[in-house]
Every structure is written in structure tokens, then in C-alpha cells.
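> example.struct
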């Protein structure tokens, strides 16, 4: 039981009454006595050794967060370059919201966590810590806002994948259509870009290799119009296009033991010992939309997971810094580093803190309304 002491000034005439009231209150249940006492949330006792270990551990954790911030910044730059590299195949409609956000949060993570590391380093000396004390509350609020931004970035990394899929579908469809237009301004490098993509990602066409059968991908300048077979193909088509069951050389699979069959893919009689219905084709059968989407979605999933890990790290940093700051503030004798202290996450319980913050917001809203009403009256 805690001891309560009172000092009565000379001439106090109610000593007996005070004694009787204390005796009456001492017979009351303990819970009633403590009913109005506001206990901090998750308090922890600290001595000098624990405070030093906490400060050193937080310093290392903050600099780990700085390294993660550099990694996020680098991934944002890399993702932006990868989108720019294949912007033609996305019909120049690719969104750079995700890479731009990654670059921003990477820079902010480095700055915020470097500051936190400096605070933890100086907290080893309680005298040095006093200069950072006024900044801690705004800093922790800034960290909360930064965590919200991180959460938004992680959600966009997962949700924007559908937009990338649609952009790839439309861009690749147009890319195949403009493959032959090597002399047209703005489309000069479409052939090269699409060929390099099919070679790098081991894919062919948009959905599959049959997409090449539906477009004229050979320019008219390379067609011998004096050839009767070519003229028949052109004139038999309603739109006057030269269509055939063939694919560009970049669709060929170099790992196939047979020389690449890229022309007359569905004509068994055009090749010796060949049946396109049963034999495994020696071209890539996977569509480039699937291959590119798998590449970009894997990258975005990895970046989203890294951002979530960063949120966990930032939350651990905030909790540790709150414990450290309250442990230093509650030292009975700041000049005696060996004295014990108590640290906590919240000064009051979770419910009390929530109610208090809600009341502050309501008061702020009421004050703004009163000020607006006063301005209208004048």
C-alpha cells in the first residue's frame, strides 16, 4: 500500500476531521482509490544500462532504415528507367506515379531516419538530449504522416498493376501494327524495340505468335509485286494487306535443335517432316504481354513488400524513440545518470488518448467556426 503524508500548517483546526476522513477513505476498496489515476500505456522501468542499450539499438535501427531508404530510392529510379525504355510498347501512356512516389519516400526516409539516428546518438548524454526535446513531438507527428505516405505507396504498388496490364495490351497491339513503319517519324524504332523485347523476354506477339498472322508486318518496299503469289495475297485481302502465317526472326527459339521455321508455320507441306499440330514449335509460344506483365508485376510486388517492411521499421523506430525520450524525461536527477526512470508509449491509456485527441479536434473545429462567424458579423 502506498504511503500518503500531509503537512498541516500551524493553527489548523480541522486536524481531527482530516484524520477521520483519511481513516474512512483507507477502508474503501483500493480500486476506488485508483479509479481516477491515469496510468501510462505499456510502461517500462529503465536504468542506465537499459537506456544505453536502447539508444545504441535505436541508432543502428535508424541507420538500417536509412539504407532501406537508399534502396527504395534506387528501385524507384530503376523502375522509372524500365518504364521509359519500353514506353513505345505502352503506347506512351505509362504512368510514373509509382516510381515518382518511390523516389520521394526514399529521399524522405533517408532524411527522417538520419535525424532520428542523430537524436539517439546524443541521447547517450542527457545534457545533449535537452536541445532535441522540443523537436521530438513534431518529429514523431512527422513520422506518423510519413508512415501514411508509405502505406499509400505500398497500396499503389499493388493496385497499379492492373493499369500496367491494360497499357501493355494496347501498346503491344499497336506496336505489332506499326512494326513495318520504319520510315514513319515517331515509329522508326518500333521494329528494333519489339525485336529486342521478344529476344530478351523470350516471347512472341501480344497474346501469342498468331497475332503476327493478323497484321502486315513486312513493309511494301520489301515486297516484290511482280510475284504472282504476293499479288494474289494482297488483292485477295479486303484491306489490301499482305498477310501470311509467319513471324519475325526475333520469335525464334535459339535453343531448338531444328533451324528456325518462321514462315508458313501452319503449312505442313512447306517443310519436311513437320506437323504444326503435334510438333513443338521452335519459336516462342508465350505472348509478350504476359511476359512483360510478369516482369513488371514481380518488380512492383517486390517494391510494395519492401515499403511494407519499411513501415514496420519506422513503427519500431517511433516506439523505441518514444520509450527513450520518456525514460530520459522522467529521470529524477538528470545530473545523475545512474538513477532509474520510467518510459512508456502513451502518457495515458489508448482510450483516454483517443478521446483526448478527438476532443482537441472538436475544439479546433468549433474555434474555426466561431472565428468565421465573427468575421461575417463584422
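> example.seq
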Amino acid at each position: 500500500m502506498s504511503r500518503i503524508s500531509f503537512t498541516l500548517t500551524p493553527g489548523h483546526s480541522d486536524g481531527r476531521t482530516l484524520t477521520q476522513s483519511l481513516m474512512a477513505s483507507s477502508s474503501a476498496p483500493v480500486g476506488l482509490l485508483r479509479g481516477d489515476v491515469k496510468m501510462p500505456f505499456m510502461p517500462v522501468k529503465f536504468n542506465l544500462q537499459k537506456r544505453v542499450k536502447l539508444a545504441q539499438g535505436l541508432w543502428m535501427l535508424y541507420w538500417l532504415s536509412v539504407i532501406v531508404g537508399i534502396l527504395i530510392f534506387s528501385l524507384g529510379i530503376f523502375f522509372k528507367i524500365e518504364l521509359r525504355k519500353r514506353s513505345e510498347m505502352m503506347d506512351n501512356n505509362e504512368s510514373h506515379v509509382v516510381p515518382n512516389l518511390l523516389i520521394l519516400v526514399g529521399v524522405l526516409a533517408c532524411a527522417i531516419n538520419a535525424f532520428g539516428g542523430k537524436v539517439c546518438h546524443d541521447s547517450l548524454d542527457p545534457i545533449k538530449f535537452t536541445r532535441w526535446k522540443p523537436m521530438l513531438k513534431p518529429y514523431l507527428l512527422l513520422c506518423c504522416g510519413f508512415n501514411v505516405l508509405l502505406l499509400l505507396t505500398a497500396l499503389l504498388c499493388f493496385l497499379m498493376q492492373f493499369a500496367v496490364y491494360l497499357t501493355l495490351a494496347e501498346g503491344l497491339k499497336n506496336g505489332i501494327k506499326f512494326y513495318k513503319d520504319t520510315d514513319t517519324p515517331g515509329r522508326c524504332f518500333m521494329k528494333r524495340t519489339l525485336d529486342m523485347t521478344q529476344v530478351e523476354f523470350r516471347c512472341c506477339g501480344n497474346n501469342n505468335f498468331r497475332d503476327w498472322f493478323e497484321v502486315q508486318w513486312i513493309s511494301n518496299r520489301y515486297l516484290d509485286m511482280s510475284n504472282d503469289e504476293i499479288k494474289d495475297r494482297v488483292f485477295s485481302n479486303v484491306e489490301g494487306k499482305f498477310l501470311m502465317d509467319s513471324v519475325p526472326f526475333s520469335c525464334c527459339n535459339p535453343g531448338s535443335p531444328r533451324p528456325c521455321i518462321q514462315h508458313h508455320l501452319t503449312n505442313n507441306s512447306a517443310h519436311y517432316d513437320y506437323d504444326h499440330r503435334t510438333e513443338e514449335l521452335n519459336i516462342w509460344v508465350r505472348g509478350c504481354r504476359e511476359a512483360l506483365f510478369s516482369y513488371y508485376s514481380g518488380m512492383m510486388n517486390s517494391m510494395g513488400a519492401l515499403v511494407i517492411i519499411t513501415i514496420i521499421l519506422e513503427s519500431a523506430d517511433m516506439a523505441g524513440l518514444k520509450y527513450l525520450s520518456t525514460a530520459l524525461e522522467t529521470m529524477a536527477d538528470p545530473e545523475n545518470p545512474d538513477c532509474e526512470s520510467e518510459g512508456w508509449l502513451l502518457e495515458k491509456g489508448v482510450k483516454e488518448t483517443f478521446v483526448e485527441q478527438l476532443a482537441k479536434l472538436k475544439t479546433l473545429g468549433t474555434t474555426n467556426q466561431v472565428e468565421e462567424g465573427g468575421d461575417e458579423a463584422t
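> remarks
Confidence is low (pLDDT under 50) at residues 1-37.
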